[in-house]
Amino acid sequence: RAVLRKASALEYKIQRRALRKEDFINYIQYEVNLLELIKKRRARIGYSFKKDEIEHSILHRVHSLFNRATGKWKDDVQLWLSHVAFCKQWNAKHQLSKVFSTMLAIHSNKPALWIMAAKWEMETRLSSESARHLFLRALRFHPECPKLYQEYFRMELMHAEKQRKEKKEFEQAKMDLGEFNYSEEILNGEMARIVYRDASQKIKGVEFQLAVLSIAKLFDFTQDLQKEILESLQARHADDPLTWDYMARRELELGSLQPTESSTKQKKVSEMAQREERCCAVFDEAVGAVPTEDMWKCYITFCLERYNRKTNSEELKQKRLERTLSVFSKAHESSLLSEALYKQWLQLLLDSSLSEKAVEVAEAATRRFSQSVETWQMRLQVLIQLKRDDVTQCFEEAIKHVKLKGTLPLWTLWVEWSEGTNSKEDTEALYQRSLHATTPAESVTMKEMYLDWTYRSSGYKKVKRLFTSLCENRPFSLDFFRKMIQIEKEQESCKMLHLREYYERALREFGSTNTDLWLDYIKEELSHPQGKPENCGSIHWRAMKMLQGDLVEDFVSKYTLLQTGHL
């Protein structure tokens, strides 16, 4: 009776004149949950009768609900995918075939849906012909989609592999195939070759060639095809860094030139070192042939990957480190080292305790990227870490080179360093200087830091005087006022008079946009020993006048919660 009542209520909702998508989703979800429950009950009591009357009628109802919903809201891809998932879960192959057919007629502009449908035909229905037909239709809509060609290429190779396995099974069983014959061309992946050739005429990028090559490598009968792709790659994209990167890394997989009989640890290490040397020889040739920043980046990335690999051989680790540092130096000499790679080089030098070299490299980086805040920051951090004497001089140089806007990270680093190193007077002078040297928006952060440092170093009286003087120059941040309120609250003789002053100053700046500030002010009046609860009414009235738009409603609901003790 409960099921009937619930189903009737849901059915009424989808019979309205103004239909809503949520009603269909809720009805479908209810029916799916019901199916799951029936399945569990059947398993628990071992009852397997009357499936046609129970499950099949519910399944039929769910499919018809999905059909109505997708018919009404055709553009909702998620709805279609939910129907696909439901069909897969309940093994409704015939229905799923219809769903894919209708969905692809409407959403033919989405390659991912074509791939999903073809994959299902190939892997679930074991129909290579249907999958091929879908891919060919998809390519008529998307003739230059790399992903479609890759998946079509993979499908043809899977089909060839499947046929090879079938043939092998028949030969082992010594069965007479009669008139049925396996085509040698298909068995050797000729269809995939045709797909590749067609695709390579339309898609020019090196990434596509490499993706297709990586797919071909998954199959053990594609040596000739791999060779053709590789030759095409070298002929068409000889100047592309990715081609050289692939050719170099390929040396790692080819194995040692002299295969060793026994595999002792020492021999394994020397073999790995030989392979890496061959890779580097290819990379050296590459940076000569294609002297670009991207090519050096590929070379350095390879060296760093090898260096970061775990090995028990100290000799191999040292060799990798020397090689990496050497490549960094060569790239630097060629003036083809990017800003990000300078950072990695510095980190490697510091980790290897080569501090003098790190200082040189940091200086060279700031010469090359003199406008970059990040590069100066990097150099300064190196000098601070090594506790050098010329830190102040370097800060002055950095501020001189970098444009006014964006110098905030340098000032924050400078004052943080000064707090721990210089005298109070020097640090205070630096804070004062930073307020004038940064843009108004950036000076807000410096004000907060200045206030915090003054309280930590000189105490309450000094910070109160500083707060009053800083309040003369806008702009401010809300945290600036909250910091001062927090400082006042930490005092033993916390005066409500001072708190009111800080709240009033903050409300002048942020009263129209911040509801929490008003509520905190009201709470303070209610909870502070010197507070005046009778002021709450006037604060509430001012808040209602000052707040803008939806914030008034938000304030009223929060104020009500505060009055009832829920906030």
Automatic annotation (TrEMBL):
From the Swiss-Prot or TrEMBL record, state where the protein is found: Nucleus, Nucleolus
According to the UniProt record, one GO cellular component term is: small-subunit processome
Q: Which residues form the signal peptide?
A: none
Give the GO biological process terms. Answer: maturation of SSU-rRNA from tricistronic rRNA transcript (SSU-rRNA, 5.8S rRNA, LSU-rRNA)
Domain of life where this protein originates: Eukaryota
Listed A to Z, the keywords are: Nucleus, Repeat, rRNA processing
In terms of InterPro entries, this protein maps to: HAT, TPR-like_helical_dom_sf, Utp6, UTP6_C, UTP6_N
Q: Name one GO molecular function term.
A: snoRNA binding
Q: Which SMART domains match?
A: HAT
Q: Which residues form the U3 small nucleolar RNA-associated protein 6 N-terminal domain?
A: 1-61
Coiled coil location: none
Name of the protein in question = UTP6 protein
Gene coding for it:
Utp6
